[in-house]
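Everyone, study these two lines:
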Amino acid sequence: MSDDRDDATEDFPLSQSRSRRDALRIGGLSALGAVIAGGTLLGHASPSLAQTAGTLGALDKPFDILFAIYPGGTLLDFAGPAEVFHRMPNARIRYGSPDGGPVMLEYGVVWGRSERLADIAKTDLLLVPGGPDLTAPNKPAAQREILRLAQSAQYVTSVCTGALVLAKTGILEGKRSASHWATVNLLKRYGAIPDPARFVSDGNGRFMSGGGVTSGIDFALRVTDKLCGSTAAQVSQLIIEYDPDPPYRSGHPRVARPEIVAEVEKLIPGARNGLMHIEGVN
């Protein structure tokens, strides 16, 4: 039986047709429920989630999270955070795009369903992921919808070059923001303040951003911590086995060998200075 529902709080009976991922998801929600109730997890006493809660405690009411995706976007920029956010109790996950329907992402990957941004009245948390071509989200009609949703959202967030999409709307003027290291200084063009950190929070936490592609998981865990508390974030981290152990220390210019940075600069001129050319950014 297929599952077309977005609400991460609903429990579905496990059958032979259910996948291992479904079992982990359902089990994860059960585990979070136990934590919220102040129960025990893996034989150890767990504090009530309310004791470590962020501004919204344990999300005791439905909380809407909207991923604003678009043609040419990067799948991992929002797939990573989605793995985390779908496990937040009482979170309702939605995917919106400029035209609605299926969206062809980078490398020809098709995201099969999205709502039209203009049809979405509001959201509690807006997340704009990035991509190597920002032409689609930076068109005037898309910008108007993204700005409208951002203005009424409780939290305005981005991953990777999604920060440039938000910045172009003007909502990040004077705000610190992360972006991919190769594009972070392009934020200045729109009045935002570039910050090279992997996770950045500004405006008393209303504006949150992650750096390049893989930072989306770190970003989502920090957002979960803010909304539901550190215990919930750590439970989600364990369920998805997020235990990074990369084979090389080469994920950022500050740690990569100079000759590796030079090779990347050949592929994407301007990257070294955070000024890589990207379509849709002027």
About this structure: Residues 133 and 279 are 5 Å apart (CA to CA). The chain has seven helices and 13 strands. The domain at 20-243 is CATH 3.40.50.880 (Rossmann fold).
